[in-house]
Each structure stands twice: as C-alpha cells, then as structure tokens.
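Protein modeling request. Please complete all fields; requests missing the sequence field cannot be processed.
Requester role: graduate student
Desired output: 3D structure, token encoding
Chains: 1
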Amino acid sequence: MIDADFVAMLRCPVDGSQLELVPPDLLGQINQWIEEKRLFNTADQAVSEPIEAGLRPTGRPVIYPVRAGIPALVPDEAIRLPDEGGADLGN
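Delivered output (91 residues):
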C-alpha cells in the first residue's frame, strides 16, 4: 500500500497540484466501473485492469492509478472520471 507521507511529496504531472489518496468507497466504485468496461484513460483507451489505489489531483476529474505499489504519474494513463451527475463515462 502507498504511504500517506509519500503521497504528500507527489504532484500532478500536468498542473503540479497536490495529490490525495482516493477514499476506499470511491476506489471500489472505480474498480466496479473498470470491470464494467466503463472507464477510459486520457489517451482514450479502455481501462481494463483494476487498481489497488488511486491518486487524485485537486481540481481535475482524473485518477492516477497505483498498481503493484507504483503510482503511474503519466498524463496519458490518468483515468477519466465521470462528472458528478454520473454522465461522461467512456467515449
């Protein structure tokens, strides 16, 4: 698992904003959407592998996935999240 002190040192590679760990309830929802093939990354590729954790930048509706304890802070690998109304899933 990713350490909170480690997360505090990380920044979004796009805008430099601080990152925070995704809360467990949202992580569960994200993994459900991934299983349902409803999420896409910012390169418009379907996300097919569940994530063990996620890092959310402030002010952007994306999650940087964490797999095998390694955060993927690559702009094209950021997972787009739906808006607050639940729309905008996928393409």
